[in-house]
Amino acid sequence: KLENATLKAELGRATWRFLHTTAARLPDKPTKDERAIFETFMHLFALLYPCGDCARHFREILAKYPPQSGSRSAAAGWLCFAHNVVNERLEKPAFDCNTIGDFYDCGCADDDKKKKA
Ligand code: FAD
Questions:
Q1: Does residue 13 have a pLDDT over 80?
Q2: Which of 2, 19, 34, 115 is the most exposed place for a label (fewest CB within 10 A)?
Q3: According to the model, what pLDDT value does residue 28 have?
Q4: Atom 3, ligand 1: which residue's CA is nearest?
Q5: What secondary structure does DSSP assign to 42-94, as a single string?
Q6: Inter-axis angle of helices 32-48 and 5-24, nearest 10
Q7: If you measure from the C-alpha of residue 90 to the centroid of ligand 1, how many angstroms do you get, rounded to a whole number?
Q8: pLDDT value at position 114?
Q9: Using a 6 Å cutoff on CB, does residue 95 contact ligand 1?
Q10: Within 13 Å, how many C-alpha atoms sit on residue 108's CB side?
Q11: ipTM value > 0.85
């Protein structure tokens, strides 16, 4: 089957949005369990992502730069960095990770006290 670059890019955009929004919702001070869930999820995600080449490359990134989860900002900063590694490979401009603060908003109500800032 031929590659459909439009669909591949669309899946990429949706997925990055989901991943960055997830990192942005990690608690400021995650528990041991919350940290393990975040890090394990990233490794499982890298095994399941439907674009095989993308997933393989992302697994290499994870091996070199293991997921960071000590705090929300550490997780968001790590993922921003990892996305920039992909951007570089695809010859896309780097994102300024210092400005990631409020960029990813889940639009959800703050009904979960644990997730409040
Ligand atoms: P995207 O890279 O999809 O980014 C979407 C938006 O996120 C940008 O417009 C910008 O606002 C913001 N953004 C950009 N950089 C960052 C950052 N560092 N941190 C936070 N936000 C940022 N495609 C391939 O062709 N080959 C691959 O090997 C490949 N690997 C991928 C691996 C993963 C894990 C994922 C999720 C996607 C991969 N893709 C790959 C898809 C590719 O990364 C893009 O999603 C796709 O090309 C669409 O690019 P885009 O220019 O719309 O911006």
A1: yes
A2: 2
A3: 96
A4: 13
A5: HHHHHHH-SSHHHHHHHHHHHHHS----SSHHHHHHHHHHHHHHHHHHTT-PP
A6: 180
A7: 9
A8: 54
A9: yes
A10: 12
A11: yes
Distances (CA, A) of 12 to 6, 18, 50, 89: 10, 10, 10, 14
Taking CA atoms only, the protein residue closest to ligand 1 atom 51 is 92
What is the whole-number distance in angstroms between the Cα of residue 111 and the centre of ligand 1? Answer: 30
Q: 84-105, pLDDT tens digit by residue? A: 999 999 999 999 999 998 899 9
- Residue of the CA atom closest to atom 33 of ligand 1: 54
Which residue's C-alpha comes closest to atom 20 of ligand 1? 80
Q: Is 27 helix (H, G, I), strand (E, B) or coil?
A: coil
Q: Specify the pLDDT at position 113.
A: 55
Residue-wise pLDDT tens digits, 37-77: 999 999 999 999 999 999 999 999 999 999 999 999 999 99
Atom of ligand 1 nearest to the CA of 57: 28
State both tokens at 25. Answer: 């919702």
State in Å: Cα 21 to ligand 1 middle: 14
